[in-house]
Structures are given as structure tokens and as C-alpha cells.
Design brief:
alpha/beta; 10 helices; binds ligand FBN; binds magnesium ion
Length: 216
């Protein structure tokens, strides 16, 4: 029987067919075009992606954590802006998505800066120091299950993975929404928080990114 392809598989097919190998920008453009013209997918997208780019550039991070790889769109976006020695660890729960993301990341040619780890963030965050040799993260991009943003942030604090000046950048704080996380970072004396108004990827619906600086 003909096996049905999944949306991530069709997205990868478009990348391998249309994007230039080794060119992260062309991979990003191809995915955005696919999502606008063919099938919507939950990538951070081109509009919020520009805000992500500016936060990465101004942070100039050495060690970045991404929660929720999906197809690797934001992984490629971030990695393409990192200085040579910097590295990005991205956590992905779903093995099928991880398999697709690895191929997107390799096609873009950023695989040397990226470590994709399969598993649940709640299980992996406590292993970052001992198993992955991380001291602290300069930047964390939260884009996974919305009810994991707050518990995983508290877990990163408890595990000593944030230092004074570490930046948390959270996707979807309006749509689908992360109310408990927003309330926490906006009211805790340990964070200086700022909302970047934008739109849900490839739509006119309001969404935005919340940038929160850990004050130590
Ligand atoms: N605790 C976790 N640890 C590791 N990976 C995780 C975890 N939770 C979800 N994931 C993975 O993230 C990927 C993508 N993902 C993200 C979400 C949560 N994000 C959204 O649901 C979302 C939804 C919309 N939307 O519905 O419009 C828009 C967006 O930008 C979104 O990020 N669910 N799966 C999936 O492969 C999943 O396995
Ligand atoms: Mg998102």
C-alpha cells in the first residue's frame, strides 16, 4: 500500500528539491514559501523569525538551548547567525520530527553548530551540565508544548543553567498562549521582560515573542 507522507516529510521534500545545499537562508525561504503556498506548519515563521534574528544577533550567544525542534526551521535560523565556536543544543521529543529536522539541519549546512537531542525537555534539562558539558545558557528559545514553558524555566533556574544576563525568548505567548509563563516572567523580580508584538506564523492572527532577561 502507498504510505501517506506526513507534513514534515513533504516540507523536507520541498527543501531537498528547491533549497540550495549549504545555504541556510535558502532553506528558510523554501520552508516559508512552502508554508505560505502549500501547507501551514508551526515554524516560528518569517515575521517572528526576524525578531528572533535580532535577539540572537544582539545577544551574540556562545551556548544556546532550543526547546522544541520540530522540523528545524528556527534551529537553522539561529545556527546560521552563531559565531564559529558557538553551539546550539535543541531538544525534540518526537523521533519522527527529529529525523526530519536532522536532514533539514544538514541540508542547510549548520550541523556542526547544532546538537539535536531526542527526549523530553523535563528529563534532559537536568542532564545538561553533567552529560552535555554545559555551564550556563546565554540564550534559550522556548517553542515546545506551551504548558512546559513555566516548569522548564523553573527547572533551568534550579539546575543553575541561567546566569545574570541570560535571555529567554518565548514563542506563542499570545497564540496558542502561555498565560502561566507570562505571568511568572512579567511579575518575578528575577526577570526583566519585554513583549514583541507580531503575528502567528503565516497568518494575520496576533501573536508575539516575550524576551525575558534573567537578573540572577
Ligand atoms: N517537552 C518537550 N520536550 C521536547 N520536545 C517537545 C516537548 N514538547 C513538545 N515538543 C516537541 O516540539 C515539537 C513541535 N511542537 C511544538 C508544540 C507546541 N507548539 C505548538 O503547539 C504551536 C502551535 C501553534 N499553533 O497551533 O498555531 C503555533 C506555534 O508556533 C506552536 O509552536 N507541540 N509540538 C514537536 O515535535 C514536539 O514533539
Ligand atoms: Mg511556536
Amino acid at each position: 500500500t502507498l504510505t501517506q507522507s506526513t507534513r514534515p516529510q513533504r516540507l523536507l521534500g520541498a527543501v531537498q528539491k528547491k533549497a540550495t545545499r549549504g545555504n541556510p537562508r535558502s532553506v528558510i525561504q523554501t520552508i516559508d514559501q512552502f508554508c505560505r503556498q502549500r501547507e501551514w506548519a508551526m515554524n516560528v515563521g518569517d515575521e517572528k523569525g526576524c525578531i528572533l534574528d535580532s535577539v540572537v544577533t544582539e545577544t551574540n550567544p556562545t551556548t544556546v538551548l532550543e526547546l522544541g525542534t520540530y522540523c528545524g526551521y528556527s534551529t537553522v535560523r539561529i545556527a546560521s547567525l552563531l559565531p564559529p565556536q558557538a553551539r546550539l543544543i535543541t531538544l525534540e521529543f518526537n523521533p519522527d520530527f527529529a529525523r526530519i529536522a536532522r536532514q533539514v539541519i544538514t541540508w542547510a549546512g549548520v550541523q556542526d553548530k547544532v546538537e539535536l537531542v531526542e527526549g523530553a525537555s523535563g528529563d534532559l534539562i537536568p542532564k545538561m551540565k553533567a552529560q552535555f558539558g554545559v555551564n550556563t545558557f546565554d540564550l534559550v528559545f522556548l517553542d515546545h508544548w506551551k504548558d512546559r514553558y513555566l516548569p522548564d524555566t523553573k527547572l533551568m533556574e534550579e539546575c543553575g543553567l541561567l546566569k545574570k544576563g541570560s535571555i529567554l525568548l518565548a514563542d506563542n505567548v499570545i497564540c496558542p498562549g502561555t498565560p502561566d509563563y507570562l505571568e511568572y516572567v512579567r511579575n518575578s523580580p528575577r526577570y526583566q521582560s519585554q513583549y514583541f508584538k507580531s503575528h502567528l506564523e503565516y497568518t494575520k492572527v496576533e501573536d508575539g515573542l516575550e524576551k525575558s532577561v534573567f537578573l540572577g
